[in-house]
Amino acid sequence: MGAEANAKFTEQFLSTLPSDTGHFGPYGGRFVSETLFAALNELEAKYRELKNDPEFVKEFDKDLADYVGRPSPLYFAERLTKEVGGAKIYFKREDLNHTGAHKVNNTIGQALLAKYLGKPRVIAETGAGQHGVASATVAARMNLDCKVFMGAEDVQRQALNVYRMKLLGAEVEAVTSGTNTLKDAMNEALRDWVTNVDNTFYIIGTCAGPHPYPMLVRDFQSIIGREARAQCLEKEGRLPDALVACVGGGSNAIGLFYPFICDEGVEMYGVEAGGFGIETGQHAAPLCAGQPGVLHGNRTYLMSDQNGQIQGTHSVSAGLDYPGVGPEHSWLKDEKRANYVSVTDDEALEAFRRLTLVEGIMPALETSHAIAYAIKKAATMKSDQIMIVNLSGRGDKDIHTVAGIDGISI
Amino acid sequence: MSRIKSTIDALKAEGKKALIPYITAGDPQPSWTEDLMHCLVDSGADIIELGVPFSDPMADGPVIQLACERALKHNTSLSDIFDIVRSFREKNTDTPVVLMGYLNPIERMGVDAFLEKAAESGVDGVLTVDLPPEEAEIFAPKVAAKGMDSVFLVAPTTTDDRIRSICKHSSGYVYYVSVKGVTGSAALSTDDVAQKVANIRSIADIPVGVGFGITDAESASAVAKVSDGVIVGSVLVNTIKENQEDLSGIKDKLGSVLSSMRQAMDA
Q1: Residues of A with Cβ-Cβ distance to B131 under 8 angstroms
Q2: How many domains does chain A divide into?
Q3: Torsion of CA A101, A103, A109, A114, to 10 degrees
Q4: Are residues A183 and A115 in the same domain?
């Protein structure tokens, strides 16, 4: 990418995104029914007030340090690097966070907002269950009532996380409308919120939804990229050449990418779920194969049919099984600042096994998509180049799925 | 003058309130929808809200979500709905039809193409649930340019400033959502509705239709007393569901539910 193309990506320019109306270029915005406007306005006003409030920032940072265990390490994967024979591969170890994924960075932030807004009840939607677990976790700690909406199909394939949420005191509702997956869970959470808007805070798990959620989630997750940037400078004395992260809604990716957007020369790769292959139509890759539309409160790339109906998606990983994506990713795609690619279920499963054997790190199936692409990409890079991959979550939750594919019942 | 305005003006002159039933187009099958629309008119409807089915109707409750699923099983599309309205208009040139749905199907067709075909087929108004006035700066003027009305929602949580802005963008009527919740929610409070409608009227000079939570003749009559129109959806859609194998059965039941509301409102 040339200097000219990057000249617009200055700190000052980025500070205007999203706009006051919540737009990233043509994307984002607030496409919700009228009842939710007052709550969204209240949330936005409170957040704008608190984000620069030293007390709030201090409390958030303290929780990230003492409860989540940050900073997460930037780990040089020496053996994998040697095997691949290209760029030096570093992993940003979000899998080592409390609850096992990056999701908790955001739920800590949003639960604090709930506390400052005086809302005694939180709700969340979840796909793989990681966001549900992270929400139930912070709700337990902060003594908030918690209800998690989860597609009935995901309840089946992520039984371990469902039980974890219940142990944490959350109520889990299996959603049986539509396709029984993440998008339907989000519909149901929005319905609950519209009904209980006076006492309820909706903790959205990804950088999508109506403004201000994409901004909130990005800001809370940006700790990933800020740490990675400083750690890379400390270990290597320079910035990385490439960043790789998986993209469902895109919260771990935006968290890693955002602090690097102004850094000319740092390429960004978001990896979507190719499912059975883009050509089969059985995938969850709106940035690679969809078109702009409106769903769940924001304008963004979507998978919808010729009549504008949202299409069913397929991915081996529940957390990527979503037909939309955060609006800032749509903007980064159109601006050609980030590249979006896909890998199939089979490639992700192969990466899951390989990383487990070569580095002794068992990644989540979502994360395995990023690993699969990182391995391919790193092989084309030079040995003096550096790649950072967001190791967004650990794979314990997926053992049943992988065992099932192997024909083993546990 | 738009067909909606002339309808509401004529009712006002008679001292009556508008009865505005909602059904989802294509539910339980597209070939029945026109028949059901005539049935609604025969049973006392003044304006028809015709739902455009969407796969992810997040502002609707389970009753209308299921209606969308039934309609989408037959792939009911906007083009099908325009055909239905065009055919309805061959026999009925008086009763306004408002399309109610979500933005994505409209955008997928293209806003200009959608409005062109809507106006040409005889649609009178457009209510897009997930399109607030802030996002409708381009859309609403285009609706007006085609001679149609833009109907927007006002909620119990809407501030006076927003009411002002919403009413400025609206024509025909505004749709007051009487309860915090989704369509088909629990019973509304007539006192709260009366207060809010009075508030809207003090801010803007536009008819106010009230929907969500109107389930029977009694609630229809109570809401009619304090508003300009009564919007009723889930109870009708449920009637359709319960008789979905039998067109004449649906028409009998739909007709009797709506007629009882009409009578109570006019009494």
Answers
A1: 31
A2: 2
A3: -130
A4: yes
Residues A30 and A136 in one domain: yes
Give the mean model confidence (pLDDT) for residues B164-189: 88
3 state SS of A214: helix
Same domain assignment for residues A149 and A46: yes
pLDDT of residue A158: 85
Are A34 and B153 within 8 A, CB to CB?
yes
- The reply to whether A12 falls in a domain is no
Tell if the CB–CB gap between B158 and A34 is shorter than 8 Å: yes
Q: Is A144 in the same domain as A282?
A: no
Last residue of some domain: A173, A199, A217? Answer: A217
Q: Which of chain B's residues have a Cβ under 8 Å away from the Cβ of A21?
A: 134
Q: What local confidence, expressed as pLDDT, does residue A149 receive?
A: 97
Residues A199 and A94 in one domain: no
Which domain does A342 fall in, by range?
70-100+222-405
Could you tell me which of B24, B49, B45 has the C-alpha nearest to residue B240?
B24
Residue A230 located in a structural domain: yes
Based on its alpha-carbon atoms, the radius of gyration of chain B, rounded to whole angstroms, reads: 17
Report phi then psi at A339, rounded to 5: -110, 140
Convert the pLDDT of each residue in B86-96 to its tens digit. Answer: 999 999 999 99
Residue A7 has pLDDT above 80, yes or no: no
Q: Which of A19, A21, A32, A34 to mutate to test the interface with B (most CBs of B within 10 A)?
A: A34
Of residues A29, A184, A309, nearest to B135 (C-beta): A29
Tens of pLDDT, residues A216-252: 999 999 999 999 999 999 999 999 999 999 999 999 9
- A177 and A307 in a single domain? The answer is no
Q: Is residue A196 part of a domain?
A: yes
Torsion of CA A361, A365, A367, A372, to 10 degrees: 90
d(CA B16, CA B5) in angstroms, rounded, equals 14
Q: A193 and A329 share a domain?
A: no
Q: Which domains does chain B have, with CATH numbers?
A: 3-266 (3.20.20.70)
Q: What is the CATH number of the domain that holds A26?
A: 3.40.50.1100
Any CB–CB contact under 8 A between A71 and chain B? no
Instruction: Compute the distance between CA of residue A186 and CA of residue A190 in angstroms, rounded to an integer.
Output: 6
Q: Is residue A262 part of a domain?
A: yes
* Lowest-confidence region among A23-37, A177-191, A277-291, B158-172: A177-191
* Residues A248, A371 contacting (CB under 8 angstroms): no
CA distance B267 to chain A (A): 32
pLDDT in tens, B55-73: 999 988 889 999 999 999 9
B49 is an active site residue: yes
Phi, psi of A310 (to 5 degrees): -70, 135
Choice among A44, A88, A92, A103 that is catalytic: A103
B60 given a catalytic annotation: yes
Long-range CB pairs of A347-355, under 8 A, 24+ apart, other chains included: A347/A274, A347/A372, A348/A273, A348/A316, A348/A317, A348/A372, A349/A316, A349/A402, A349/A405, A351/A375, A352/A395, A352/A398, A352/A402, A354/A80, A355/A80
Q: Which of A159, A191, A217 is the C-terminal boundary of a domain?
A: A217
Closest B-chain CA to A23: B135
User: Exposed/middle/buried for B259, CB within 10 Å: 0-12, 13-18, 19+?
Assistant: middle
ipTM of the complex: 0.94
Identity of the amino acid at A221: Q
